[in-house]
Structure formats: structure tokens, C-alpha cells
Amino acid sequence: MNKLAVFDFDSTLMDGETIEIIADCIGLRAEVAEITGRAMRGELDFFDSLTCRVALLKGLKESRVDEICRNLNYMTGAKETIADLKKRGYIVVCFSGGFKNATAYARGILGYDAEFSNILHSKDCILTGQVGGEMMFSDSKGQMLKKLQSLLSVSAQNTIAVGDGANDISMFKYADTRIAFCAKECLKKEATICLEQKDLRLLLDKIK
Question: In the predicted model, is pLDDT for residue 208 greater than 80?
């Protein structure tokens, strides 16, 4: 019987928000962080917040973005937790409203089986300020989880979803085990388990 564990990336598998760290190199971290915070609390539509924040990155070299994404700090226990879940028979997947520059690289380090995220559009190796991809909307994670469950023949009973913000609510709807990790209040209300310490290994004692 297949089992599935789905993790958010920013502030869940990674300790921080990728887009804020990228924006820091052009002096716009505070402005981007304010928009991110509103979106994660559910005060702002995710698509609107994403496109608005990415527009601020226009003109950045793609190589600089890649460099930043290869030096992110991963969450305490992320690698060990993923390895343990895989030993228990889980397929482990990352869903991110962030960017493939970060999630594709992290896959080789953290060991998850697949990742679904967004792509920063570039022209002549310079960011255009536009974005597209698989995780653009507030319900994208839920829709993708539903597709994976169908493809892999996994039930909600055998699905774990782990996240921290409002755009994780949609995937919680399709998982019986819903873990809010150092999360915003809007997500805690939908969770079956709330973890308040930045150590993903703590969830291992809470699941089968």
C-alpha cells in the first residue's frame, strides 16, 4: 500500500523564505517580507503576492539567484526526517510556491522523491520579473496532491501534509495527517498536529 508525505519548502524544509533571501541582495528584503507575511497569514491572495514579489526581482542575474539557492539553510532534521519516512515506505514530495532554482537543487541534498514549484522567467540570463509554474495559486498544492494520490493510488488516510502558511491549507484538505510546523494561526486551525519547535524530527513520533 502506497503512502505519501508532502512537505512545503520555505520555512518548512528550508529555514526561511527563499524570495526574501534573494531580495536581500538588492536591498528589498523588508518590502518582500511584508508581502510574504500577509500572504502566509491569508490576508492577501497568493497569486497576487507571488507576482508582485517576483516583479521586484527584475534585472537580477540568474546566476546570482542560483548561487543564493545553493547556499540556503535547511531546517533542522529535514534530511533525517525524509530518510526515515522513506524507510517507512513513504513517497516524499516537496510542494513549493517558491522556485525550482531552490527546490531542484535541494532534492539532491535532502533526498525527497520529486518536487513541484515555480520557475523564474529569464531572458539572456537576466530575470524579467515574471513567473510561471505548477504552484502559482492558493489551491495549487491541493490540486497537485489530489492528482498524485490518483496516480499513485494513495488514500487521504495514508497521506501526510506538512506546511506553515495559508497556501498549505488546500493540501491539508486531502490529508488525514495535517502537520502545522511553526505555522501561522490560519493553518493551525486546519491541522491535526501542531509543532512549535524548529526540528522536523519531532514529527516522526507523531505518525505511524
Answer: no
Query: pLDDT tens across 80-124, in order?
Result: 999 999 999 999 999 999 999 999 999 999 999 999 999 999 999
Beta carbons within 10 angstroms of residue 27's beta carbon: 8
What b/e sequence results for 122-139 when a residue is b if at least 16 CB atoms lie within 10 Å of its CB, and e otherwise? Answer: beeeebbbebebbbebbb
| All three cell numbers of 183 | 505555522
Is residue 42 within 8 Å of residue 167, measured between CB atoms? no
Pick the CATH number of 3-206 from 3.10.310.10, 3.40.50.720, 3.30.465.60, 3.40.50.1000: 3.40.50.1000
Q: Which helix (H) or strand (E) holds 128?
A: strand 126-133
Catalytic machinery residues: 8, 10
Task: Report the predicted TM-score, pTM, of the whole model to 2 decimal places.
Answer: 0.95
